Amino acid sequence: MTDVLATLRHRLPAPAFAGPVHHVYVHVPFCRAKCDYCDFASAAVGDAPDGALLDGFVGGVAAEWERERAAHDVRRLHTLYLGGGTPSLLGPDRLERLLELFRPFLTSAAEVTVEANPEDVDEAFAAWAAAAPRARGRGSACGLRVSLGAQSFAPALREALGRRARADPAAAFGRLRRAGVANLSLDLIQGIPGQAAADLEADIAAVLGLRPAHISWYELSLAAGTPLAARSARSRDEDEGAAFYRRVVRALSRAGYDWYEVSNFALPGRKARHNLAYWRARPYLGLGPGAVSTVGARRWTNVAGTAAWLRATSAGARPPREVEDLGAATRARERLLLAARCGDPVPLPELTAILDLEAAGSLAAAGLVSLHSGTIRVTRKGRYVAGAVCVRLFRG
User: Fold this and answer.
1) Nearest-CA neighbor of 20 among 73, 68, 66?
2) Which of 98, 84, 99 has the alpha carbon at shortest distance from 28?
3) Phi and psi at residue 232, in whole multiples of 5°?
4) pLDDT tens-digit profile of 36-82?
5) Sequence ranges of the domains in the chain
6) In what order do the strands lie in the sheet with 298-302?
7) The pairing of beta strand 23-28 with beta strand 77-84
8) 242-261, pLDDT tens digit by residue?
9) Torsion sign, CA atoms 13, 284, 28, 122
10) 145-151 and 106-116 as β-strands: parallel, antiparallel, unpaired?
11) Distance CA 49, CA 34 (A)
12) 262 φψ region: left (φ > 0), alpha (ψ -120 to 50), beta (else)
């Protein structure tokens, strides 16, 4: 502990989110129907969405991108992420128009990700996804990364989540792979109401049978105000949730996946570099209704309403947004929280304003954190309870 105290005498500012912008997120706010567990900034547009609305969205992203690119002197993009909502609902033509906006700025090794729902993955979408990185010159030499929202391979569990679509995630995955999309990620949820241990084992077996390059497996969060929270009479069994989580981590780790973040697993060389940019506090721009940006000590969030966002972008104006100035203590707390998710070490001088040294010593003795060479790191054991570990580390 003497070494730790000596290190902390050298007070340094928290450098979170500093440097040039190399990462862009585009928020596509449209879904055919809103799932019962979802509290994201999204709007249901039905099975036959208004084409003019979707075209207007693409035009709005173009206008916002030009404004923000110039304001932040963006010259090179290392990652581009089209998320939502349901980006695949736009269809191949509009998605291609979106990619065209960013291609001149993508490095040759840039990671480009598009989220997709199984019901959108027809032959046309799969063919576009396979060809998109190579189309029209400069693009990602690594291939388009498609993140497929499976949630569960059991239709009854997807129905329990309020997912209206009946498309088979395994069939959509196979269609993409046959088309030549190699960089495939699956999103799943555990802790679904009614999910038994046998159901979890069946999902694990299905995932390992498909062997995607990347897996995101989240514990269900019952957000207040959502239909699923309203009809879920009993609270979650915390012991059962912890057992499910450990079973997922153990099974995927044994199968050769690197548990590199609390909810994310990857085969060698397939970590989600865009998400790593968030977790390592790199500056990023968010475009679209409800999108968040963080650059330096400032964070801003676009208005979630699509109509207000479209009015502003079509007039060449900045969308209405909420702006937050991040103080040194806030940046230090976020730096620790984000690093804890990945088990990354953080230099102790960056945490001077917020770190409880007595708690750090107790957690180190319990094997939940490691104090070494002037850094603090949440261990693999601690990563299971990373949020609780960080709460204990925060001073005051």
Assistant:
1) 73
2) 84
3) -90, 100
4) 677 777 777 878 789 999 999 999 999 999 999 999 999 999 999 99
5) 2-12+328-393, 23-279
6) 292-295, 298-302, 321-325
7) parallel
8) 999 999 999 999 999 999 99
9) negative
10) parallel
11) 14
12) alpha
Please check whether the domain covering 2-12+328-393 is classified as CATH 1.10.630.10.
no
Write down the H helix ranges in the chain.
2-8, 51-71, 91-102, 123-131, 155-160, 169-179, 197-210, 227-231, 238-254, 273-279, 306-314, 328-342, 357-365, 380-383, 386-393
DSSP β-bridge partners for residue 372: 375
Q: Read off the pTM.
A: 0.92
What is the DSSP code (8-state) at residue 162?
T
SS3 (DSSP) at 44: strand
Structure token digits, residue 16: 């979170």
- At 122, is the secondary structure helix, strand, or coil? coil
One-letter amino acid of 71: A
Q: What is the CA radius of gyration of the chain?
A: 21
Which single residue is written with the structure tokens 């077996």?
Answer: 205
Token reading at 244: 């499910």
Identity at 92, one-letter amino acid code: P
Among the listed residues 33, 203, 200, the one whose alpha carbon sits nearest the alpha carbon of residue 117: 33
- Cis, peptide link before residue 85, omega less than 30° from 0: yes
Encoded tokens for 75: 């010259």
23-279 classified as CATH 3.30.750.200: yes
How many residues are given for the chain? Answer: 396
Tokens 């500056």 label which residue? 283
